[in-house]
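Technical appendix A lists one of the benchmark inputs used to test multi-chain prediction within the project. The record comprises two sequence entries:
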Amino acid sequence: QKEVEQDPGPLSVPEGAIVSLNCTYSNSAFQYFMWYRQYSRKGPELLMYTYSSGNKEDGRFTAQVDKSSKYISLFIRDSQPSDSATYLCAMDDLGGGSNYKLTFGKGTLLTVNP
Amino acid sequence: DVKVTQSSRYLVKRTGEKVFLECVQDMDHENMFWYRQDPGLGLRLIYFSYDVKMKEKGDIPEGYSVSREKKERFSLILESASTNQTSMYLCASSLGGATDTQYFGPGTRLTVL
């Protein structure tokens, strides 16, 4: 079983739709959860991070963590064509032996159609 | 703004050649990382460095080496390039702590013929 599973998509939605992106993980030591966004021909950039179970909101984006189910989600409200990108989840056990190594999902390719 | 630059956007090399990929960051970050990104396999860590002249193997170090002689510069070396090293190579840097954001460069698309 891979440590982090992420549906690669592709996911295609109309403008204005609510988008749900998800990752599941197997390592219960993960404590720090991130979402990176990667536009075509660019490097990933950090979008959001959270430490604990629950929700964290930033504008149209909401990150949700359910540690009991080992499941994290990123919701995008009122999606825009500019949100078209690959979204990667990433996780860290914060020093439980990983030496700053993040564990990434494979990424989900999202296209928002005007 | 943090800036991570990589020496080339596109590179074409022949099998058996020695290849150098250079990465420079301008924010005095302690940590630097080299990843490769392949369709269906995602981002995989090759090597990282947490200080000058210090390095640790990532998940797929075979066929690669690294050099960090100065804090701002981290080089990835392919001693004898092979076709299975055709990939997108991404460099990243972070300040120093486990939760510090990793900032990525734009990537180098390497093709080995």
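The first strand of chain B starts at residue 4 and ends at 6. Chain B is about 0% helix and 55% strand. Comparable benchmark entries are summarised in Table A2.
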